[in-house]
What does this fold into?
Amino acid sequence: MVIGLLQATLSIPESHSLKDKRMVLRSLKDRALNKMNVSVAEVDQQDLWQAATLAFVTVAAEKDVVEKRLAEVSEHLRSDPRAILLDYETHLL
It folds into this structure.
């Protein structure tokens, strides 16, 4: 069993309130949950309007599957024009 974690730091420059931020994050999280078989949570910067840190976690029997899913998540985050992926880290356990 392999557990994969991707922690992403995002900038949301068009957000002018926590409500705007939540709308963008909800969309990002919902698409990841529906398409990529990962769990996701906002883990830091909850009170900032234009920044967020999300953690994505997945579990599989093989390392290759986990790495592929985490790569899909990072590509998904890069492709959304409403959020800028500033940094991310991946860890395998």
